[in-house]
Amino acid sequence: MLRHDFTRDTFLKACSSFWPYDEEIEDKKQFDYLYDYLVHQQCKSILIEHNYVSKDFLDNYQFYYASSYKNYNKRCIRLHFFAHSESEASIQECVLDDIKFSKYFEDAYLGFIVIRPIPNKVFGFCILKTYRELSVEKSFWGIRPYNVNIFGRCYSFDALAFQEQDGTLSACATTAIWVALSKANHLNYTLLKTPNQITKDAGITSNSGSRLFPNKGLTISQVCTSLVRAGLETEVILAKKVNRIKILSEYTDKELITIEQAKRLVDLDSSMHIESMHIKRVINAYSRLGIPIICTFQPYKDKALHAIAINGFKKVKFDSATSKSIKKFHFERIETLYAHDDQWGPYTKIEFDNTKEYGIDTIWTEKLAPAGSSRFISLIIPVYKKVRINYNDTEKIINDLNTIYATIFKNLKSSIHITYDYFVINSNEYKAQVNNFLNLSDIEKVKFSLTSLPRFIWVVKIYINANLAWDLVLDATDVRSNMLGVAKITYGKNSRLVNQQINRLLYKFEEQIRADLTHASVNKDYIYKLIMSNMEYNYSEITQIILTKNFDTEVVNAYQNKQNLVIAYLEKKDLDDQLSDNDIVSHLESFGLISESISHGAVWIPILWATYSACRHFYKNLKGKPMSNWSSEEKTRFINFLKTELKETSEGKNTDLSLSEDDIQNDK
């Protein structure tokens, strides 16, 4: 291996090792971008590894280049980049010492680029570290660990593979799919495929009926076909079609359409695009799956469509000041996307710019058309096949939940600002994140860790002002008409009090809330129960409802007669299980705690849950103690429990749990 100081000239000579025309390499957009990127990463030296066998290129070589008349070399060159400028002797010293080697590579190694022995399309398999100045707001969710074998040792770091299309076996869409599958393979969702295998998966012939190789590009349908054959499913977001009839109806005189108006009708398709806010919505929702999202866009006017793989984003910092600028959803905070663009390089920036015609500024417009604007045509989201609920279904539920919260705080005359974030994620990955949350009690962490969850979940984060208040967890693997809320997390040290207060207010404003949910996007009873799931209950409040309906005597007498059965059930069943209405009715009926007429004629929240909670309350104190051994005091306390609670409430002995803004502020 040969070491050189990193300069534009040494980098150019290394990239031109198989191509005698330096000027052609220097004119490439990829060369300029990679050089600037490495300078930004403070690269100081290059290590050149000759006779390198690249698995990706070798597969393409066997499939295509080996049968060409020209005698192509099958060996490549690999360039290693370092942020330090140590001598070869210093590097050799590091190689002999495990500790020094690990520290040196952790501090200095920036990644590698494979140079292919083919005309002009020289940039092969490339792994470079992400931007060094990382922050909480900057997330490269598409990266994965890679192992680099060098000097007989193995070094691992996180990145995402990149390569330039070769123009023969792969075009931009093929390369974008290859990038996405590189991460999906690491997640064990699919097999890792080479570019020529990906192109073959897209179809035997192109849409025009012509041959696939040499490849001129893939359609959206072919991209989806290739991803499905790799073992994934796809969600496709397209630019909305223009309604020409509606536009024509705006003209007052249909027989005298001007040339400008006619031109406008002809040019409508050329202005179709996905709105910036919708791009943010989709990217944010699926980013936590970790699979890069494929985007087709027009770099600037009259330029052919192009495909890239989006793998990261940067958000505006979230604090008490910036929280007020969020209208409703946290995807509004996204200001920059990062994408692998095979025509430029890895981690290229896509800026959201309202001054641009289509709200998008890419490296294409920055470098080649400063006055232009890039236009997003489609987003293709690769997902694991078990993710069946999409982002739109989840947002409908959030909109209905917001109706409930808005009603509560409106009646309290509170100025609290509620915002939401939502995304789909692997449940095990999310559990690991929950265990590291600082503003979450140990009880909440343990309870959530022990909760059985489906493999994929939608998480809805609810913020009050600048503080995270709750997470609602939904089953992403269910059918759309039966999407279940499977868990709830409450943040802050006063989580029990907050849940009781919200619960109390739901009772208080129940009639108005149900009226507001008349036009709910999904079943209003489902939404109402979702916000209640896994909450702590205020016994005084629900006891009053039970006593008003004269159910207390029947409940107490039935419990005395069926105590052993109830204890046996509670010992077997986790006390924090979330049960459906039918489950609760069935269990309580089997205990003889409620009659058939009560279970079918009563509102589910105040009666069924109250009865079940009352059983749990006494079970904690009398667990394992036969009724024959109860003292008179215990029996009296048990029998009078509901009435005593009610009496204390009416006399003002219990604390009034009215919800104020201060109560629900959580410690960060």
Q: What would you say this structure looks like, in words?
A:
This protein is an alpha+beta fold and 668 residues long. Helix 5 crosses helix 6, helix 8 (195-202) packs across helix 9 (220-229) and helix 20 packs across helix 27. The chain is globular and about 95 Å long. It has 4 domains: 1-152, no CATH class; 160-239 and 274-328 and 345-385, Cathepsin B, Chain A (Alpha-Beta Complex), CATH 3.90.70; 391-532, no CATH class; 539-650, no CATH class. The protein is 40% helix and 19% strand. The strands form 4 sheets. Strands 6, 9, 10, 11, 12, 13, 14 and 15 form an 8-stranded antiparallel sheet that branches. It has a 5-stranded antiparallel sheet with strand order 1-2-3-4-5. The longest helix has 21 residues, at 391-411. A hairpin with a 7-residue loop joins strand 13 (345-352) and strand 14.
